[in-house]
Amino acid sequence: MKIIPQIDLKKLSFPLPIYQAITIGEAISRDGEHFSVFVGLNKEMVAQLKALSLDENDIDLQKNTRDRNRFGKKSYEDWYKKNRTLFALVHKNTNALAALVWLGPEPLPENEGNWHTAAWRSYIPFRGKGLMKDFTKFAMNIYEEKISNVKFWIAVKKENAGSIGLAKILGFQESDETFNKNIDRLIIVVKNLELV
Ligand SMILES: CC(C)(COP(=O)(O)OP(=O)(O)OC[C@H]1O[C@@H](n2cnc3c(N)ncnc32)[C@H](O)[C@@H]1OP(=O)(O)O)[C@@H](O)C(=O)NCCC(=O)NCCS
């Protein structure tokens, strides 16, 4: 996917106030579909996120994430207090939320440094369409510009091949130190995106 940035980094400060959404890019997928890239979710996007998170037909989302509870049942406003910065990919023709990335401070147990966590979702019918590599890179690069010395880690279920595959493309590597301490989740880390 090709993303054309439309962004003045100096004007941005993360995390944004809740429900503020700013366009930071335009994108065209390999299928020729057009998308807008936002930092922040407005109320309409949050309503979509809630509905998508409750969607029982999205087996992969239900199996691999806690979003049903996190966004479907609990309060988004409470969750937002965790200082997450969200990036949204919105399909231009339909206004549908196609994909989401969020990043935010989260200590990596037993590790020093400015650790932040990453999470990513693509939603049906946009999943598996090659949107995520460039969208996640774009979001993480912007975040890295704003937060000095940031290091990223994610915890992902061992059987979640799609997410592990994406993480490896982004430069994440399995962490020896933390791997065995978590039974069903693989912890993988990237020190900074220059590795990518
Ligand atoms: C994980 C997820 C975001 C990947 O998104 P996607 O729409 O499949 O991403 P893309 O089509 O852009 O593929 C990106 C890369 O991921 C990798 N990938 C995707 N599915 C894969 C799979 N089943 N096995 C291995 N690698 C896979 C590919 O290497 C692909 O790179 P390529 O385009 O060069 O082939 C998506 O599957 C998803 O939202 N799943 C449900 C929620 C979830 O599990 N989130 C992560 C929780 S940790």
Structure characterization notes:
The protein is an alpha+beta fold and 196 residues long. The protein has one domain: Aminopeptidase (3-Layer(aba) Sandwich), CATH 3.40.630. It is 29% helix and 29% strand. It is built from 7 helices and 9 strands. Helix 5 links the parallel strand 6 and strand 7. The protein is globular, with a radius of gyration of 16 Å. Bound molecules: coenzyme A. The site of coenzyme A (COA) has 22 residues, from helix 2, strand 6, helix 5 and helix 6.
Short descriptors:
Aminopeptidase; globular; binds coenzyme A; alpha+beta
Order of helices and strands: EEEHHHHEEEHEHEHE
Radius of gyration (Å) = 16 Å
Could you say what the CATH architecture is?
Answer: 3-Layer(aba) Sandwich
Q: What integer is the average pLDDT? A: 90
Number of helices: 7
- Number of spatially distinct domains: 1
The structure class reads: alpha+beta
Ligand inventory = coenzyme A
CATH fold group: Aminopeptidase
The CATH class label is Alpha Beta
Topology readout:
Blueprint: E1 2-5, E2 22-28, E3 34-39, H1 43-53, H2 59-64, H3 67-73, H4 76-80, E4 85-91, E5 97-105, E6 115-122, H5 132-146, E7 151-157, H6 161-169, E8 173-174, H7 176-179, E9 185-190
Parallel strand pairs: 6-7
Antiparallel strand pairs: 1-2, 2-3, 3-4, 4-5, 5-6, 7-9, 8-9
Helix pairs in contact: 1-3
The site of coenzyme A has 22 residues, from helix 2, strand 6, helix 5 and helix 6.
Summarize the structure.
This protein is an alpha+beta fold and 196 residues long. Helix content is 29%, strand content 29%.
